[in-house]
C-alpha cells in the first residue's frame, strides 16, 4: 500500500514538472490584454495588436495583394472577403504589417470580378490583407458590436 502511494505521488510530481514549463503561467496569460488599440499618429485610424490567444480565437487569415490584369480591369487585386465598408459606404481593408498588428487602409474599388476586388488604389502588391476576422477587427477598432 505504501509503495503504491509513493508511486502515485512520484507520478503526480512528474506530470506537474512536465506541464509546468509550458509557456507562461496562467496568471501571465490572464493579465495580458486580448487586444491593444493604439492611435496612428496624424490619422483618425488605429493600430490593433492582438494577443496570441486572441489571434488564435479569431482565426485571423491573410492573403497578399496581387497583380492580376483582367480585361482592362485594374491589376491590383484583393480577395473580396478582405473588403469592409464603413457607414458612409467607404471601402477599406485591414493590412497586417507585422506580427499580430493590423491597420485599416482605405481602398478605391474599380470592380468586383467573382470573389476578387480589383482596386484603383490600395495597399502595395505583396502587402498582407486580412481575409478572415475583418468584421471582428472593425468591431475592435470602432467599438461597433461591443468589439472594444
3D architecture notes:
- Strand 1 and strand 2 (46-50) form a beta hairpin.
- The chain contains 4 helices and 11 strands.
- Mean pLDDT is 82; it is low at 1-23.
- It has helices spanning 2-20, 26-31, 52-58, 134-142; strands spanning 35-39, 46-50, 61-64, 66-67, 76-79, 84-85, 91-98, 101-106, 108-113, 116-121, 128-132.
- With 148 residues, it is α+β, with helices and mostly antiparallel strands.
- The chain is globular.
- Strands 1-2-8-7-6 form a 5-stranded antiparallel β-sheet. Strands 4-5-10-9 form a 4-stranded antiparallel β-sheet, with no helix packed on it. The chain has a two-stranded antiparallel ribbon with strand order 3-11.
- It has a single domain (29-146), classed as Beta Barrel (conserved putative lor/sdh protein from methanococcus maripaludis s2 fold), CATH 2.40.420.20.
